Amino acid sequence: MAENKLKTEEKKGFNLQNPKHRSYLYTGLFFAAVIFFFIINNTNGEPEEGPYPPNYNTVNASELVNLSDFRGKVVIIDFWATWCPPCRKGIPDLVELKKEFKGKDVEIIGISLDSFTRGGATKDDVVPFIKDYGINYPIVLGDPNVTQQYGGINSIPTSFVVDKEGYIIAGYPGLVPKEQYVKDINKALSQDYVSDKKYIAPEFSLPKAK
User: Domain extents for the chain?
Assistant: First the structure.
């Protein structure tokens, strides 16, 4: 008799007295709550950022210097700092080289290490230094990562000469005579050298000093 009554109520539609119907209701309410809180959590406020991937840079792309931008040119990469006497001594030669090889597919990039060497005490000296020395080539702000990419810079100045294809053809720890740079540049421009093409210059993307 009771079974017949239950079947009759099921035919009438939804009934809270029916255990099966109550189960449907609770399940529906549960999923509705889950969906509600999901929507709230994804529409209120900005999502948290991070963690950042390696070499993440928040600087605008227009303010960055990329080594790959100079593919097709001979490039001198000079690691230096304003507090370094040999660096200061060598910079006028680099300024002259930039003038002498103007329009000949040659570029110089100075990577300042002031922002993290000596506790960053001289990081604010970079821009005034550029003006005082009349530096006419790009100066970028280096970080520990780029020094490690270039084999670990243990002393400055340290420089590299990169050919038009992006391969390192010479590397120099210490001050380099201008005449040596001229030889390397002319050799790279004429492609009159033997290279095993093993040591491609690591790419970097660093902010301009300004």
Answer: 2-43, 65-207
